[in-house]
Write a sequence for this structure.
C-alpha cells in the first residue's frame, strides 16, 4: 500500500503531510515523555520485526499479494503513539533506503499505515470491553487489525482518486472500491498474523500485555485478560 | 519467567529465521495498490529520491535470494538502530 511518487497531486500530498505531522509530533512527544528503560528495547525489536515481516508478501486471489503492515500489533502492546512512532521510522527508511513509497507521498503513507492503524487501538479496547476472556481478546485483535488495513486502503483510494493521475480512469469512484476490494482480503492476512503473534505473546509473556500504553487518552486497557 | 531481554532476543532470532525461510516463498504478485494501478494502466514514474537499495536488493550480489535477504537484514538493523537511537535521543532531551 506504499504510494509511489507521481500518484498524488501536490495539494493532496501536502495536505497529507500537514495532517500526518499533526499526529507525528504529539506521538514523538508522547514517546519522549513515556518511553522507559523497559519498553524502548521492546519497541525497537517490535519495529524491526515488523519491518522484516513486511517483506513477506502472501498471495491472496487473482494474482495479487499483500503483506503485514503491523501497526495494530504494535498498538496492542505499547499503545497508539508507539505505532505512529514505529511506522514513521519504518516508512522513512523504506522510502529513503529501499525506494518503497515515494518521498512526496511519505506523509500520506504515514497517515494510511501509521495513524489509521494507531486509531484501531481504540476499536480493540472497545471490543475487549464486550468480548471477554482470551478468545474475546484474540477476536478483538483480529477485527482491529483487519480494520487497520481496510480503512488505510480506503484513505489511500481516496488520496489517489482525487489526484490527476487517476482522473481519466474514473477517479475516487473507481479507486476507493477497488482498493477496498483487494484489501478486504489482505486484511484477513493482517488479522490472522496479528492474532497469532498476540496469542503467542499472551501465552509466553502475559506480562507484556500489561505494559503501559503510550497514547493521547492516557492509560491503556486492562492488562489482564478477563 | 526469564528476563524480558533474553525472551526478546530469542523471539528476534526466531523471527529472522522465519523470514529467511519464508523469503523464497514470498509472493512476487503486485500488492493491492500496485494491482489497482496496473488494472487501470497507470505506470509508476521513477522515484524522485535515488534510494541506494531499490526494491530490497543489494546491487552487487547476483543471487536473487541472497541479495534480498541481505538487503532485508540491512534494513532490519537500520530500523532497530533508528528506533532505539531516536528513542534514546528523545529521552536524553527530556532530562536536560
Amino acid at each position: 500500500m506504499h504510494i509511489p511518487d507521481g500518484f498524488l497531486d501536490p495539494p493532496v500530498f501536502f495536505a497529507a503531510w500537514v495532517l500526518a505531522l499533526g499526529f507525528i509530533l504529539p506521538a514523538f512527544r508522547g514517546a519522549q515523555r513515556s518511553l522507559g528503560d523497559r519498553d524502548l528495547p521492546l519497541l525497537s525489536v517490535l519495529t524491526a520485526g515488523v519491518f522484516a515481516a513486511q517483506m513477506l508478501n502472501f498471495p491472496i486471489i487473482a494474482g495479487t499479494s499483500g503483506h503485514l503492515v503491523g501497526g495494530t500489533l504494535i498498538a496492542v502492546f505499547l499503545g497508539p503513539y508507539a505505532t505512529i512512532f514505529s511506522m514513521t521510522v519504518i516508512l522513512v527508511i523504506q522510502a529513503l533506503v529501499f525506494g518503497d513509497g515515494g518521498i512526496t507521498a511519505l506523509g500520506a503513507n504515514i497517515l494510511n499505515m501509521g495513524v489509521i492503524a494507531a486509531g484501531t487501538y481504540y476499536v480493540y479496547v472497545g471490543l475487549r470491553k464486550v468480548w471477554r476472556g482470551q478468545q474475546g481478546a484474540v477476536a478483538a485483535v483480529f477485527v482491529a487489525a483487519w480494520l487497520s488495513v481496510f480503512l488505510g486502503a480506503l484513505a489511500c483510494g481516496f488520496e489517489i482518486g482525487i489526484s490527476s493521475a487517476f482522473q481519466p480512469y474514473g477517479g475516487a469512484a473507481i479507486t476507493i472500491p477497488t482498493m477496498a476490494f483487494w484489501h478486504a482480503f489482505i486484511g484477513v492476512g493482517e488479522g490472522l498474523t496479528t492474532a497469532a503473534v498476540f496469542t503467542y505473546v499472551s501465552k509466553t509473556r502475559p506480562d507484556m500485555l500489561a505494559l503501559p500504553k503510550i497514547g493521547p487518552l492516557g492509560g491503556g486497557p486492562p492488562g489482564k485478560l478477563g | 519467567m526469564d528476563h524480558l531481554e533474553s525472551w526478546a532476543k530469542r523471539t528476534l532470532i526466531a523471527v529472522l529465521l522465519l523470514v529467511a525461510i519464508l523469503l523464497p516463498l514470498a509472493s512476487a504478485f503486485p500488492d493491492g495498490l500496485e494491482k489497482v494501478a496496473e488494472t487501470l494502466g497507470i505506470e509508476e514514474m521513477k522515484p524522485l529520491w535515488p534510494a541506494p537499495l531499490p526494491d530490497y536488493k543489494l546491487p552487487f550480489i547476483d543471487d536473487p535470494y541472497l541479495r534480498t535477504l541481505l538487503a532485508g537484514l540491512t534494513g532490519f538493523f537500520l530500523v532497530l538502530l533508528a528506533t532505539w537511537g531516536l528513542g534514546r535521543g528523545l529521552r536524553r532531551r527530556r532530562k536536560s
